[in-house]
């Protein structure tokens, strides 16, 4: 968490220092970089890389905690404002080429996998609750059917038993049946075989097994809100991945991030080995993130994103954590920088085009 806060603070302070001096958000640095330094030449881009580095650090810390406890913590929701802030800064700046646009796709992918993890884990709890409600409805239906059957029974007294047959009729019947006049043709057996050979299609009568619609169970506002939140997460995850795949794909990685691409393609890792890789290793193997519907894969997205930043940053002279601006070196007016996610100009994201 400390690493993420450090990157976020440095990126925000540095980004403000690149604005025109007349801008309301402009803040001068106490120790600005030399004019020949890449941190001066590419200050805006490096600041955005620091913001993205901070976002990945937060994501990786949250995912590591989830991995240890084998669960999905609710704190993922606190990342939404910072995600919006990062997307805004990368969208506001006209990306020069596909390499920079790929980082915007990375942010969308991080958000999509975050949403996917939340709804995948919540769905497990909801499934158990829905099973209990289904059993309750079926019990109500069974009780209703039993009550209807009880009401349909005749109310007359016990029926009079039939009279016993006379000896004469028994003798006549036995004599008549001693010589059969009809021979079985085997048709009933054939019909039975044909009936047994018929197979019903799976789910054909599924709807007929449901209780009638007039049987209901009570739900409260919390129940509706939770299901609405889950459906919203599914919709948002789909939207995020739709935007992500516009600017971040394997062909784009192969073209603009060949080293990162090679580390993913020539790998011996499987989808479940997220915990094996070292996020600071620049030579180790990686893995293309799997399907977000499983609720997993955030670790691989973070590892891929970190590798992309390192590969891209080498051309700029980006030094990562070694080049951040510590809080004690910020300008006096900027020492108590507010959370970037709550800034007035960063609350509304720029539409993606």
Automatic annotation (TrEMBL):
<feature type="compositionally biased region" description="Low complexity">
    <location>
        <begin position="166"/>
        <end position="185"/>
    </location>
</feature>
<feature type="compositionally biased region" description="Basic and acidic residues">
    <location>
        <begin position="198"/>
        <end position="211"/>
    </location>
</feature>
<feature type="region of interest" description="Disordered">
    <location>
        <begin position="329"/>
        <end position="353"/>
    </location>
</feature>
<feature type="compositionally biased region" description="Low complexity">
    <location>
        <begin position="340"/>
        <end position="353"/>
    </location>
</feature>
<feature type="region of interest" description="Disordered">
    <location>
        <begin position="145"/>
        <end position="216"/>
    </location>
</feature>
<protein>
    <submittedName>
        <fullName>Uncharacterized protein</fullName>
    </submittedName>
</protein>
């Amino acid at each position: 968490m400390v690493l993420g806060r450090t990157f976020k603070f440095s990126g925000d302070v540095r980004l403000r220092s690149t604005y025109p001096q007349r801008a309301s958000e402009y803040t001068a640095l106490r120790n600005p970089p030399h004019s020949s330094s890449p941190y001066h030449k590419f200050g805006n881009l490096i600041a955005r890389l620091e913001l993205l580095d901070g976002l990945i650090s937060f994501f990786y810390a949250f995912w590591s905690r989830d991995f240890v406890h084998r669960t999905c913590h609710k704190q993922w929701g606190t990342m939404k404002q910072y995600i919006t802030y990062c997307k805004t800064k990368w969208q506001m700046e006209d990306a020069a080429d596909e390499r920079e646009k790929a980082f915007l796709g990375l942010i969308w992918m991080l958000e999509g996998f975050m949403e996917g993890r939340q709804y995948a884990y919540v769905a497990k709890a909801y499934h158990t609750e829905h099973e209990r409600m289904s059993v309750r409805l079926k019990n109500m239906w069974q009780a209703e059917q039993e009550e209807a059957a009880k009401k349909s029974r005749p109310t007359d007294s016990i029926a009079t038993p039939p009279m016993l047959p006379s000896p004469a009729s028994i003798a006549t019947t036995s004599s008549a049946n001693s010589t059969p006049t009809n021979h079985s043709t085997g048709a009933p057996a054939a019909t039975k075989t044909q009936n047994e050979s018929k197979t019903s299609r799976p789910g054909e009568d599924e709807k007929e097994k449901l209780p009638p619609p007039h049987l209901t169970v009570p739900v409260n506002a919390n129940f509706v809100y939770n299901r609405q939140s889950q459906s919203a997460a599914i919709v948002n995850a789909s939207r995020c991945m739709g935007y992500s795949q516009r600017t971040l794909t394997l062909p784009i990685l192969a073209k603009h991030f060949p080293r990162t691409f090679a580390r993913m393609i020539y790998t011996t890792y499987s989808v479940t080995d997220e915990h094996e890789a070292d996020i600071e290793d620049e030579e180790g193997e990686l893995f293309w993130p799997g399907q977000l519907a499983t609720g997993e894969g955030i670790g691989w997205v973070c590892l891929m994103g970190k590798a992309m930043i390192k590969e891209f940053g080498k051309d700029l002279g980006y030094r990562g954590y070694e080049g951040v601006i510590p809080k004690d070196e910020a300008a006096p007016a900027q020492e108590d920088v507010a959370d970037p996610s709550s800034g007035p100009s960063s609350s509304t994201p720029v539409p993606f085009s």
